[in-house]
């Protein structure tokens, strides 16, 4: 055997085939395969050949590490991905919680009689105006983001959303440091415009995070909801600490809003850590492969998401999510925060009564309820609507407590005249809100095929915001109701 034939034989044996040489009619040497030995797909450039069977794994354009990740599912070591989505859950409701929990700063200080010298409707109905300004853009942009993918890819959407939120909070801190007693109307409208912009970008941010979590196992959607409820508890504690240790209400507001900046910057950093995590990358590659297979089955045509189909399949859970938040926001915080102490000998002083029995109690209990939903899923998705519907009874319950609104003379009698009865009702309101909303958000992505789970998760986020919005709108009715309705 010649030297060339020996080298050719050695090279082709390594590639799984034996090749011999011969001279053709023109006297030129050619190569001929006499035996082809089937080998498994190897992680070499030959992945990209077009003659691979359709049912074989095709690792085109993947690194060796990504190809391994696509096959082998790693664990979420130290629950880093879970904690990351928990942090983003805190971040997505941070703008809303920071403004509503600071009710006393806006309505009693910046827009209060002691500061500006007169009573204004802006201060008396601040939470209703705030809720409307916050949730109208939030609802619109949550729904638009499902169909239009506003702001480009995931990274662009989240980075720009968080960056704009940071700028708005910096402006809010500057307003807190500024003496605005001579222009309360301008201060009010500047605050409302900043709230509108804040919630436009937050609608995109929130919807995107729920869509990302829906790609992962069910507990990661629960992590976002749990984080949302922790957000309320966190802001309530920050407010109490700021009021306790700050030298004035002005300094308390400055410390309070600076905390929001810190949380948003943590969210910004942790988002960029996600693609470095092997567990997250596995599920991302898995979704990409399913999309490629779907596109191949459609002969390369762009696959359109059947939005109506997904909506119909997820509708029972979307209703549950919507109604939980409608009933909750119908009374919290607009009614809840204006319930006053019945007697002066209650162990919680007047200064901390609203902060503790309203904001801290609701948010802490919602956090606990959300955590319990991650451990126990009862009732099943089929029967969840029953306890969710019964929560409508919370609306008359809180209206019959000692709900007092400035500039409104109450005609509806106070029938629940016990601080303890009111507080127990507040505890159960928070627990059921956190528990049932988490169940609905976890069940929604599982009502459709895995490839549509992300879209169902985004529908769930939009249903959540719609429930909040309509609940807040109903808050405009209650002052008129207690003024004109007597028993």
From TrEMBL:
Compositional bias annotation for Polar residues: 14-32
Matching PANTHER family: EQUILIBRATIVE NUCLEOSIDE TRANSPORTER (PTHR10332), EQUILIBRATIVE NUCLEOSIDE TRANSPORTER 2, ISOFORM A (PTHR10332:SF80)
Keyword tRNA processing: no
UniProt xrefs under InterPro entries: Eqnu_transpt, MFS_trans_sf
Membrane topology according to the record: Multi-pass membrane protein
Domain of life of the source: Eukaryota
Name listed for the protein in its UniProt record: Equilibrative nucleoside transporter 1
The keyword Protease belongs to this UniProt entry's keyword annotation: no
Gene: LOC108560364
Lineage of the species this protein comes from: Eukaryota, Metazoa, Ecdysozoa, Arthropoda, Hexapoda
Entry similarity comment: Belongs to the SLC29A/ENT transporter (TC 2.A.57) family.
Region annotation Disordered: where it falls in the sequence: 14-36
Location(s), subcellular: Membrane
């Amino acid at each position: 055997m010649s030297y060339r034939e020996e080298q050719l034989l050695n090279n082709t044996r390594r590639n799984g085939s034996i090749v011999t040489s011969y001279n053709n009619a023109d006297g030129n040497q050619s190569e001929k395969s006499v035996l082809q030995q089937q080998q498994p797909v190897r992680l070499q450039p030959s992945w990209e050949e077009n003659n691979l069977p359709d049912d074989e794994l095709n690792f085109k354009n993947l690194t060796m590490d990504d190809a391994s990740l696509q096959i082998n599912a790693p664990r979420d070591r130290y629950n880093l991905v879970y904690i990351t989505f928990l942090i983003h859950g805190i971040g997505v409701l941070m703008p809303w919680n920071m403004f509503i929990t600071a009710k006393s700063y806006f309505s009693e200080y910046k827009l209060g009689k002691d500061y500006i010298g007169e009573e204004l409707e802006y201060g008396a109905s601040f939470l209703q105006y705030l809720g409307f300004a916050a949730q109208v853009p939030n609802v619109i942009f949550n729904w638009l983001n499902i169909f239009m993918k506003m702001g480009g890819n995931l990274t662009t959407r989240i980075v720009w959303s968080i960056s704009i939120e940071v700028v708005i909070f910096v402006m809010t801190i500057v307003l807190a440091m500024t003496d605005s007693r001579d222009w309360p109307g301008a201060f009010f409208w500047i605050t409302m415009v900043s709230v509108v912009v804040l919630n436009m970008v937050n609608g995109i941010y929130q919807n995107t995070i729920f869509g990302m979590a829906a790609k992962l196992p069910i507990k990661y959607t629960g992590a976002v909801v749990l984080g949302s409820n922790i957000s309320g508890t966190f802001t309530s504690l920050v407010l109490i600490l700021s009021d306790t240790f700050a030298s004035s209400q002005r300094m308390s507001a400055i410390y309070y809003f600076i905390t929001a900046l810190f949380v948003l910057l943590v969210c910004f950093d942790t988002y960029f850590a996600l693609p470095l995590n092997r567990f997250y990358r596995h599920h991302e590659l898995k979704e990409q492969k399913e999309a490629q297979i779907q596109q191949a089955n459609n002969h390369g045509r762009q696959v359109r998401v059947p939005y109506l189909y997904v909506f119909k399949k997820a509708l029972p859970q979307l209703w549950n999510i919507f109604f939980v938040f409608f009933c909750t926001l119908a009374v919290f915080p607009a009614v809840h925060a204006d319930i006053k102490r019945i007697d002066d000998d209650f162990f919680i002083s007047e200064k901390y009564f609203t902060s503790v029995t309203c904001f801290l109690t609701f948010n802490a209990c919602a956090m606990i309820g959300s955590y319990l939903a991650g451990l126990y899923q009862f009732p099943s998705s089929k029967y969840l609507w029953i306890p969710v519907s019964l929560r409508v009874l919370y609306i008359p319950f809180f209206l019959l407590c000692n709900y007092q609104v400035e500039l409104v003379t109450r005609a509806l009698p106070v029938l629940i005249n016990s601080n303890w009865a009111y507080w127990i009702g507040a505890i159960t309101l928070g627990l059921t809100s956190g528990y049932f909303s988490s169940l609905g958000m976890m069940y929604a992505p599982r009502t459709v095929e895995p490839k549509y789970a992300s879209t169902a998760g985004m529908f769930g986020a939009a249903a959540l915001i719609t429930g909040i919005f309509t609940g807040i709108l109903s808050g405009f009715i209650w002052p008129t109701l207690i003024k004109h309705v007597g028993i």
